[in-house]
Amino acid sequence: MSSVALRSSDDTGARPAGRRTRGGLFPRGGLFWLRTTLGSAAIVLALALLAHEPPQEPAPRPVPAAILVAPPPAWQPLADAKPRYVVDAPALKGLAQGFEARRHANGGREDKLVYGVFEADEPYLRLAVFRGPDEAGAPRSFFIDLARRAGEAGLGVMRTARPATVATKLGTLEAAEIVLADGLERPCQAFRLRSEAGLSLHGWHCAAGGQAPDRAEVACLVDRLAVLPSGEDATLNAVFAQAERRRGEGCPSRTSEIKRKSA
């Protein structure tokens, strides 16, 4: 029996070293699970960091610069235009004269005639004759229209009276006594007219001596408005030829005066 016990003791001492590690610090397969656990933890940590990272905004797209194009002006000056009209009145003889013309976008033409100087103690007439369709957006009120046109001439409207009508060879004329000023105040008679032939006119007349002219005097000036001979607008020539037949007796034509004096 003693020999058997000794053999068993020797067998135990002769076990390989690797067999003694079973049940130690790293059992079989433990290293694999450690690696797997660490890898999973790294993935979870990366996902957590990505979840808390603010989203990247897309780069702003370049915005093209805005190009502002102003609309063309409604009026264009006619630098080389020749006068179409003349006011043949004795009261205006010898006065300084001015003229300018402009074209509207709708195709109409406006001629401005000026006789005299506003600041001088002599008659002063400013008359604009428009031939063409109505200007879009033009004010219909007599007073608003007057204030706008006086402002274009550098004048202010200080006082106005109620407009009244008077007949002329071109149609019914609206007229009102007003006071215009540019530092100096002058009583005048403002007027405007729109004929059926697509012809309109407006302006004001100031008499000498600090007195406002009456409506009959203004109507006479309109009756003395004549179109200069031209082949550009045969219709306009016909309109004035027909209008001469409607001239009032209180304001005879220049031709009638010459005939009367020669007789």
Radius of gyration, in Å, reads 51 Å
Order of helices and strands: HHEEEEEHEEEEEHEHH
Model regions low in confidence, pLDDT < 50 over at least 5 residues: 1-26, 255-263
Could you state the oligomeric state of the chains shown?
Answer: single chain
Q: Strand fraction band?
A: 25-35%
Distance between the termini: 187 Å
Biggest sheet details: 9 strands, antiparallel
Morphology call: elongated
Separate helix tally: 6
Number of beta-strand segments: 11
Percent helix, as a range, is 25-40%
Residue-averaged pLDDT, rounded? 80
Indicate the structural class. alpha+beta
Integer count of domains:
1
Give a written overview of the molecule.
The protein is of the alpha+beta class. The protein has one domain. The protein has six helices and eleven strands. It has helices at residues 2-13, 30-52, 142-152, 215-223, 234-243, 254-262; strands spanning 75-77, 85-87, 97-104, 109-115, 124-131, 156-160, 164-168, 171-181, 185-194, 199-206, 225-227. Strands 1, 3, 4, 5, 6, 7, 8, 9 and 10 form a nine-stranded antiparallel sheet that branches. Strands 2-11 form a two-stranded antiparallel sheet. A hairpin with an 8-residue loop joins β4 (109-115) and β5 (124-131). The longest helix has 23 residues, at 30-52. The protein is elongated. The model is unreliable at 1-26 and 255-263 (pLDDT under 50).
